[in-house]
Amino acid sequence: MTMITYGSLLLSCAVLLAPRGYAQTGGINPSPATVSPPASAHYMQGRFSPNALAAIDGMADLYCDTLGKVISMKWSYSVAPTGGNVPQAPRTFGWQSVPLDFWPTAVGYANQNLYVAGKRYNGRTLVQEWGVDYTGFPASEPSFQPRTIMNRDVPGESVIRWLFPLVRELQPLVGPRSTHLLVQFADSFDVGTVDIATGTVNVVFAAQLFPDLLVAERDIAWGVRHNQLGNLYVLQPSEPSLTGPILFADSERDGIVDSIQVFASPDPFQALIGSPPIDWTLLPAK
């Protein structure tokens, strides 16, 4: 059995599209393009650890290459040793690249699926849910089954700059852990939600009312579970010296953002979520 390595995971389009039923994600004729490509997304988009790979501590970093029309994953895993007094097995790394027929602008992970936002050649904005099949991993690469959630052309919602699944932690939890994606649109800078089941878009914070959302340098989204403040979704600038972050808070941990807080500099933000005795952990991408 061949294990995944950097060399074996650098996949060609033919390998990705032929062996395990992976199809091009769309069916739109890729030429000629009728709109210009969107601005490039922040390359590093997050990390996820699928339950299906828990036995080998499998995880992947997500990367979004907008102009190259590729979503990439840097996989790593460690086969657990057996017996007593056995040293921890070293981690093995490898790359997987998934070519697309649209420009990807954001990617995230929830409900054991990937969620990919992008722009089609005809100008329409889309969001897809990718089911992931790990059969044979790590001897063979995961394959993906895309389902289009949203495919629309609406002024003010032309490009999704970033997305982050809203995590529900209600007990007992009925239904999927994430039912909505938190997103920001590049043309209006409005922040809204996309219903994963229906694709319905709801604007939660309009940039006209919250002008701090208009700062383009804030383009990294991540989440933390705060013991006192609930689930916090952080919109952070690529260069911390430029401006402070924005916090979207879900105080009830019910998957609904109920407040927004803007920081002029990184210092008070760090004091809020990083100083003892307040405890916080990264929201797990499960």
Description:
This protein has 286 residues and is mainly β. It has a domain of 151 residues. It is 6% helix and 40% strand. The protein contains three helices and 17 strands. It has a five-stranded antiparallel sheet with strand order 16-15-14-13-17, with no helix packed on it. The chain has a four-stranded antiparallel sheet with strand order 1-2-3-4. The longest helix has 9 residues. The N terminus is likely disordered.
Blueprint of the fold:
Layout (H helix, E strand, L loop, with lengths): L5 H4 L3 H5 L26 E5 L10 E7 L4 E8 L14 E8 L3 E8 L2 E7 L5 E9 L9 E10 L7 E6 L14 E6 L5 E5 L5 E5 L12 E9 L3 E8 L8 E5 L8 E4 L3 H9 L5 E3 L4
Antiparallel strand pairs: 1-2, 2-3, 3-4, 5-6, 6-7, 7-8, 9-10, 10-11, 11-12, 13-14, 13-17, 14-15, 15-16
Short description:
The protein is mainly beta. It has a domain at 1-151. Helices cover 6% and strands 40% of the residues.
Mean pLDDT: 80
- Span between N and C termini? 28 Å
H/E order of the elements? HHEEEEEEEEEEEEEEEEHE
Contiguous helical run count: 3
Most strands sheet:
5 strands, antiparallel
**Which consecutive residue ranges, at least 5 long each, have pLDDT under 50?**
1-31
**Main sheet: strand order:** 16-15-14-13-17
Taking all Cα atoms into account, the compactness measure Rg is 19 Å
Structural category is: mainly beta
Beta percentage is 35-45%
In one word, what is the shape? globular
| Percent of residues in helices | under 10%
**Count of individual beta strands:** 17
Keywords:
286 residues, five-stranded antiparallel β-sheet, single chain, disordered N terminus, 17 strands, mainly beta, four-stranded antiparallel β-sheet, globular, 3 helices, 40% strand
